[in-house]
Amino acid sequence: MPNLKAHYFNLKNLAVVITSLLFFGCASMQTPQGGPKDTTPPKVLSMTPKNQTRNFNAKKIVIEFDEYFKLNNEVKEFTISPDQERPPILKVRSKRLEITLQDSLEKNTTYTLNFGKAIADINESNTIKNLSYVFSTGNEIDSLSISGKVTNSLTDELEKEVTVFIFPVERDTLFGKKRPSIYTLTDSSGNYQLNNLRQGLYKVYALKESAGGGDKIYQQISDEIGFIKDPVNIDKNLENINLQVFKELASEFRVLDRKLSNDGIITIIFNQQLKNPKLTVTDPPSVDVGKYVHFNKTNDTAKVWLNDLSFDSVKVAIQDEGKVLQTLNFTRGKKDTYVRDLTITDNAGGGKLNPYQTYTLTFPFPITAADASKITLLEDSVKRTTFQLVKDSTDFLKYYIRYPWKNKRSYDLKFAAGAFTAIFNAKNKEVNKSFKLETADSYGTLSLRVEVPDTTKNYIVQFIDEKKNVIKSSVLTKNSTIIFANYPAGKYFVRVVYDENKNGIWDTGNVKAGTQPEKIWYSTSEMSLRANWEREEKLVIPKAPAP
């Protein structure tokens, strides 16, 4: 008689094994978790008809990729050149992109389909850049090219992902609303190349769009632009057609932002750097009396403090060089109240005071009174009374404390409540500040002997830091020595502006006027300052490069 119990257990064990195999088999089909992030964009496996097909007569083009993908900003990114009245239709079919041509094609013409940054993978949005498809309805394909690099006119840095495009001279539409159909993006080294071009005269541009842009239409307010002044005759392959992008100055004055804050400060931001600005309260005129106005260094932002805030509305006229540019209206509710916090900031960053600077206090409101008796100075915990409290002669937001500060000493300053009084009788709360005097050994000096190539011209010699911030600027017309004295040890560089109009500043370009930015030369020598060291160097300025 068969052993039924043993048979039962064998069947049960078999069922467990089968179930386990199915479970682990299914588990192995899951997408692996973790691992390195995918940074590779989709790859083209095939194009039908093949890329660069001659005697093209198809109505549909199919591009197959190695993974699933999506279309981003198709309307902005995709173009066909020459333009068609009815643009092609793009559809995603699994891992294929189908492009259906709606319009008839011209005879003996080379067409270029440019996808820009429209194609990206599903998961990580890795984008294929500068993908194109070319075909010809005739026996030949246009094969001319133009290439070069794009840099920033002020910083001389290479510009990546800047749009370089060309317009046939007869269809130059930079200031219109039509996107270019022949374009490419610069690579990470600032290089560009446009291929499959037809012989002809073209205007060449480089466009660096602001964040949120991407329509490839120049917006003067926000974008940077570069251009070749004269039309370029593409009758052979052209190399080293280089462009520099720059930010144009606004052609018409405009207020970018304006507000009346809950502390009573009026802030106005302009789109231009004014030369000799002035603000006047025109209505009611009585409010104009006793007002305070503060412009920033570049004269493109103004702050206004009014002594009388009982108005329902005021009109503020913005003037430059005696001309009224715009009048603004500010209103307030009858029940509006204002809260003022009279804070005190100093220039002892990180608890250290530069030994070559005066200890400076800065306030958010105009100071009307100061009481030195409410300030306590301790030097190594010993009270000192010989300090001086000095008001800035021109800036109503600044005060100075003068004292013979000493190395290796600790300083504590206590500003009692009410030490400073601002407009509307606003007073500071109790504030404590502590710092030490940084040693002079941390600073260095550079003596730079400069030779100019032409004494009839102006040269602006600028010391800049690693972030291209200007530390010191000098205008020269002859061989001179510049002393770059008592600056923190570190890496510094020199750049020279060829000041063609002799106005003492770097002037940007203007597309409509056909003017390029003033040329800049960067010295390749690093002008490092060593701590507690005096260094001498020679700088020979080369002639300005040809326009």
From TrEMBL:
It comes from the Bacteria. InterPro entries: Carb-bd-like_fold (IPR013784), SbsA_Ig (IPR032812). Residues 38-137 form the SbsA Ig-like domain. Keywords: Signal. The keyword rRNA processing does not apply. Transmembrane segments: none annotated. Residues 1-29 form the signal peptide. Coiled coil: none annotated. One of its GO terms (molecular function) is carbohydrate binding. This is SbsA Ig-like domain-containing protein. It comes from Pedobacter chinensis.
